[in-house]
Design goal:
The protein is α/β, with parallel strands linked by helices and 256 residues long. The chain has eleven helices and seven strands. A seven-stranded mixed sheet has the order 3-4-2-5-1-6-7, sandwiched between helices. α1 packs across α11. The radius of gyration is 17 Å and the shape is globular. The model has no long low-confidence stretch (mean pLDDT 92).
């Protein structure tokens, strides 16, 4: 049996919860440990693509072409700190362009088939919605990591995401599971953040990662330089928290 990439989707329909930051930095932490990693940008905003110093407007081909025209995904991969399958604003039109295709929910899953043996991890950044792009990501994924900002409104979105996952398990991908819920943008000085984490743990128990991603200016600075926080500030607290998360995810994989 050829070893197969573990596909992880990072999803939360609420924006601004550090989804892109988590996708990139966890991928960089896997790569630091010697894993072969591909990041896939499924967000038309192209933030993941830009955070590795790539201008989405300069691309000849992007994930739009992979999903709509079935171009080989290798043609949209740029090699940076890690490999990135790039997005551009064209992706915003993909949902309409795919709407008439049969099996449209499985376009990404099919695109991954030829490359599953080439990587250890495929990490998918999804848009802040539960539309067709996110459904493609969840259908292609083995596991889902849910970054959640530690505040009440952000946590309410988890119920919606769980309902969508239930529907995907019933109809498209019976195997997909939540790998874990990741508290992000934690301001440990506030009582609200502590209470929010307590509510998460009451509702989701050991599915809440022990790792906490604290608020820090480093997360805003690193993408401007076109690099992960692990490369930008390797000894900082932000980089260390993603190394801890990588250890947790790898340990989960061995337990199961």
């Amino acid at each position: 049996m050829e070893p197969k990439a573990k596909v992880i989707a990072f999803a939360n329909q609420k924006g601004g919860v550090a989804k892109t930051t988590t996708t990139l930095n966890l991928a960089a932490a896997f790569a630091e440990k010697g894993s072969r990693v591909l990041c896939v940008d499924m967000d038309p905003q192209g933030n993941l693509t830009m955070s590795q110093g790539i201008d989405p407007d300069s691309l000849d081909l992007s994930m739009y072409d992979v999903l709509v025209h079935h171009v080989d995904i290798r043609q949209v991969v740029k090699k940076r700190e890690i490999d990135i399958a790039c997005a551009s604003i064209d992706l915003a039109g993909a949902e309409i362009a795919m709407s008439t295709q049969i099996g449209r929910e499985r376009s990404l899953q099919k695109a991954f088939q030829p490359i599953l043996g080439e990587y250890d991890f495929i990490c998918i950044d999804t848009p802040p919605s539960l539309g067709l792009l996110t459904i493609n990501a969840l259908t292609a994924a083995d596991k889902v990591i849910v970054p959640v900002q530690c505040e009440y409104l952000s946590m309410r979105g988890l119920i919606q995401l769980q309902n969508t996952l239930e529907m995907i398990r019933e109809n498209l991908n019976p195997e997909v599971q939540i790998e874990g819920i990741l508290p992000t943008l934690v301001d440990s000085r506030t009582l609200h953040a502590k209470e929010a984490i307590e509510i998460l743990e009451e509702n989701f128990g050991d599915r809440v990662f022990a790792s906490r991603i604290r608020k820090t200016i480093r997360f805003a600075e690193a993408p401007v330089k076109g690099m992960s926080v692990l490369k930008y500030d390797p000894d900082g607290v932000a980089a260390e928290s993603y190394r801890q998360l990588a250890k947790e995810v790898l340990a989960h994989g061995q337990e199961r």
